[in-house]
Amino acid sequence: MNEYTYPILFGVVVGTLARFIMLRTDYRQYPTYLHGKVIHLALGFIAAGLGSVAVPAIMDKEFTAVTFLTIAASQFREVRNMERNTLTELDGYELVPRGNSYIEGIAIAFEGRNYLVIFTSLVTTLCYLVWNIGAAAIATVGCYFVIRKFMSGSTMKQIVDIEFKELYFEGAGLYVDNIYIMNIGLPERQKEILKYGMGFILTPKNFDVRSTIANLGQRQAILHDVSVSMGVFRDSGTPALSPLIKRDLDDGRIGVFVLPQDKDVEKAKQVIGAVPVLENAIRMPSESKVSKKEGRNK
Amino acid sequence: MNIEKVVLSIITTNKQKVSGGAPIFICETKEEMDKVAANLEAIIDGISHALSDELYIIVKH
Predict the structure, then answer these.
(1) What is the ipTM of this complex?
(2) Residues 6+ away with beta carbon under 8 Å from A27
């Protein structure tokens, strides 16, 4: 026992708790099993330990100890690889795959959350050592809000208007509103699609959003989430029954064609609205120098 | 080279209109054509697309 024991202990506990809070199993059902959770809690514990130890090390003028953090960084990059590999492997067995962009987003979140743990432990231990346990407790609350802020990305309902549209066939072509989805030859399949399918039109709220929802990864994420939450009317060997999203080239709207087992329009709208906007799909054409110049000249 | 989309077979009621590399199934009636197309679709995991009322193709996507 020395003067650093309690601060470090405090930092480690808070850091591990932070990882626990950030490890939520929701509709995505990932990580599902206890083993998956144990892996991430254990890694969170390690991250918390590294974050807490860094402060006393600096206070004892052991500056080289900070290089430890670089090991942590490579360790957590490994976490990202691990998640990416697992999810990519499993994606081949999904009826409606997640798609690589969605997987990359999840993997990034796993890596990023470990750094948040290091940050939490570092800050709380520092506060404990510099002031007292009260200050550390306040810092903990502060960190909690920072974590919450980082955890919540934007969702589709913030960037698009969602509207339900009936599907219809023109000859063999399947349409949602005026957007052509695909060609279905067999009358039997056409009947199935009209019976089980639903169509939605997502209208972008501004110009930047157009390219975001045009992103194929973002579209696949929408289809995956709808299929997870509402069920999907398809099986292996029925490629004709695959949910699809196509784009209206004129105005950037997208037509979503899904085959849910639960045909509840309001629920489907909410599910689409709650799909996370993938960070690698976000584009900001309005932030480019050229557009800004135009803005000034107007 | 990885070929992504292939026409796996052609089903028609009008044999004047088709020839070429893919297997061609000639049917007497529209009903027969629908039935053959449905079976082929299930067997080869492709999608039947209608090019006209008398011509279906099965495409692997």
Answers:
(1) 0.84
(2) A225, A228, A229
